[in-house]
Amino acid sequence: MNRDPKLIGHSLALITILMWGMTFISTKLLLETISPVEILFLRFAIGFIALCLLAPIAFKRVVIKHEWYFAAAGLCGVTLYFLLENIALTYTLASHVGVIVSIVPFFTAILAHFLLDGEKLNLQFFVGFAIALAGIFLISFNGNYNLKLNPLGDLLAIAAAVVWAVYSVLTKKISQFPYSTVQATRKMFFYGLIFMLPVLAIYGFKPQWGQLVEPLPLFHLIFLGLGASALCFVTWNSAVKMLGAVKTSVYIYMVPVVTVIASAIMLKENITPAVGIGTLLALAGLLLSEGKFTRGKKKEAKQQL
């Protein structure tokens, strides 16, 4: 039976977002035990070990040009993005960060338009982006529109969004290399962990191991390491390979939606009318954005005629 690669790509992107949307809860609970930097390092260290076990065979030969791409992807997607986002949270409200980071598809689209083949834009993308962003605004602020802008925190959040957009473009480039997705992701994790070492030296690394091995913290740490890191980066990178950088990135609109639903179930938080309307708008924006790229299909159809 033939499987549609695009259908598989959409499924992988959706699975990734469902898990990434729940990482906020696990991280929030783990922050009672260890610091953000310690969470970041441990989750990717666990993910790296898991990927090494899953794909223990090293690359047959090292291509220096490819290594630069892997290093850049590890720096952007593993180290810088999460550090910038976590630091931004110390200066500005989480709701601000949630809205700002959700503009990732916009930056990804701009970069991909100029740097990648077959990732051209049209008006439908920008309309879908505006609708989704309005929905995410409603979800994040939950009817409370007290903005209280903090220039430093908000700029750091914007920087995080730009960095993830760069990672998305790099991932698409890497998908063209002759390596499996698991091998490529493992290599990105390796460089990401290397770039984290100076940060650990500055902030320190003294996790409370006794508390971490307790059932609840251990479960959330394993979820972040095996699920949200090892599995999700592989599924996300696979989706980028199948769908393209921008088509995959629009699924980020769904992260706050998943977080709200998961919080309502697990943390007993209420879903207000503003959040309900925001969810519908985010879904509408995503669906509209998913139809934005023809990738030359119309031209190909005309040529076949």
UniProtKB/TrEMBL annotation:
Main localization category:
membrane
Q: Quote the cellular component terms of the Gene Ontology held in the record.
A: membrane
Q: Look up keyword Transmembrane and say if it applies.
A: yes
From the record, give the transmembrane residue ranges: 7-27, 39-59, 68-84, 96-116, 123-143, 149-167, 188-205, 217-236, 248-265, 271-289
InterPro entries associated with the record: AA-Vitamin_Transporters (IPR050638), EamA_dom (IPR000620), EmrE-like (IPR037185)
Sorted alphabetically, which Pfam families does this protein's record hold?
EamA
The segment(s) forming the EamA domain are 8-140, 152-288
List where in the cell it is found. Endomembrane system
The protein's matches in PANTHER family, at most eight in alphabetical order, are given as: EAMA DOMAIN-CONTAINING PROTEIN, INNER MEMBRANE TRANSPORTER
What family does this chain come from, according to its entry? Belongs to the EamA transporter family.
Q: What is this protein called?
A: EamA family transporter
